[in-house]
Backbone:
């Protein structure tokens, strides 16, 4: 395995995941707001990352604030 190639490829993939995920969340939140179905509190979010070939399954849970105090 070439560490430099692996690292660059991994960073590129994770950047794409982050950017596209943010776009999709923003689109869904705006649609819910326009429809009047956006909940009042923070949104509960869960991401499940799976990688074939190495049997990786990793879950990340968190909250997305909709009003002040975002961290």
Residues:
């Amino acid at each position: 395995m070439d560490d430099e190639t692996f690292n660059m490829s991994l960073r590129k993939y994770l950047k794409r995941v982050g950017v596209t995920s943010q776009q999709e969340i923003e689109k869904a939140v705006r649609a819910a707001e326009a429809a009047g179905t956006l909940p009042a509190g923070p949104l509960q979010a869960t991401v499940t990352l799976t990688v074939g070939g190495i049997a990786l399954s990793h879950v990340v849970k968190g909250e997305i604030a909709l009003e002040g105090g975002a961290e």
The CA atoms of residues 38 and 50 lie 29 Å apart. The first strand starts at residue 43 and ends at 51. The mean pLDDT is 95.
